[in-house]
């Protein structure tokens, strides 16, 4: 069973959930846009989006949030949020 990292961040004013697939360019990573909303998608909404992409949470997986500066090293730079969780293919194989 292959474990992947699913990540979620804001892109162009929309929350985007994507699954980082090793050995595949970013343009081929499956993704889901939640639409324009200031609210963070709920865990249930994220789970449904992952299922639609063919993935489920890995055993004991929990969402982790990281903040980072838009401009590295600049304390006055806007803060961005990145959420990540470990997932696996819904059928246990490669997507």
List keywords for this structure.
mainly beta, 95 residues, 1 helix
Radius of gyration from CA coordinates: 14 Å
Beta-strand content bin: 35-45%
Question: Structural class, from secondary structure content?
Answer: mainly beta
Number of helices, counting only DSSP H or I runs of 4 residues or more: 1
Structure description:
12% of the residues lie in helices and 44% in strands. With 95 residues, it is mainly beta. Strands 1, 2, 3, 4, 5 and 6 form a 6-stranded antiparallel beta sheet that branches. The mean pLDDT is 90.
Question: Quick summary of this structure?
Answer:
The protein has 95 residues and is mainly β. It has 1 helix and 6 strands, in the order βββαβββ. It has one helix at residues 43-53; strands at residues 3-11, 14-20, 31-36, 55-57, 64-69, 79-89.
Q: How are the SSEs placed, and which strands pair?
A:
Layout: E1 3-11, E2 14-20, E3 31-36, H1 43-53, E4 55-57, E5 64-69, E6 79-89
Antiparallel strand pairs: 1-2, 1-6, 2-3, 4-6, 5-6
């Amino acid at each position: 069973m292959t474990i992947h990292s699913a990540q979620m961040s804001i892109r162009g004013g929309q929350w985007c959930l994507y699954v980082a697939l090793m050995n595949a360019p970013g343009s081929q990573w499956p993704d889901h846009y939640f639409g324009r909303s200031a609210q963070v998608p709920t865990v249930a909404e994220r789970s449904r989006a992952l299922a639609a992409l063919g993935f489920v949470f890995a055993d004991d997986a929990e969402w982790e949030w990281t903040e980072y500066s838009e401009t590295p090293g600049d304390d006055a730079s806007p803060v961005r949020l990145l959420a990540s969780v470990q997932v696996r293919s819904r059928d246990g194989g490669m997507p």
